[in-house]
Design a protein that fits this description.
- The protein is mainly alpha-helical and about 190 residues long.
- The protein is built from 9 helices and no strands.
- The longest helix has 26 residues.
Length: about 190
Amino acid sequence: MAAQFERLDSLQPLIDVKVVVGSQLQLDGLANPYDPPADQIVTLEAGAEDHLAALRTLVEKNQTVHLYATYTLIRGSIESSARAVWLLTGGTRDKRVFRSLQFILHNRDIVEPLAKAWNLTNAEGYKSMKRRLLALQEALPRVRSKDLSSKLTITAMLDEADRQLKKKSDWSGRQVWQACSGAAHGNKTTMG
């Protein structure tokens, strides 16, 4: 396991990551200045790295692996990484930017029930955000007619990441995520 953790040391600090002028990320960001894809990806990768750093600390300092917590950390890292790959690999600029806009709306929609429960809703802010996203979508000829609010699932993102990445083990990312999810949730069938 130490060799796997050493790979974390080779990662460039996210604070030092610069978007290259003329790159796919820079041009995608021009098409979505509301929340540029590069910013979304850095946030996702920060989450992925943080989960793995916490796992490393648990294993190296405590010399133990906790039965449930470690699987949650692995699963969280896989989810964040798969989302980043999904954002990066839409094929055309229109599709990648559409995914980025869709991801913004999805993230806002999944926290809306919590905002309502805490009496923190901002109906006008939500409407303004949605108008802005739709206006940015309108500038994307190939995806103008697609539904920005269509449901996103982590399994679809995991499947896309699996298609895009070179397989280095017998297990797909989705299979590892499913196994970790089962263990994290105390699913005795998964753990047995």
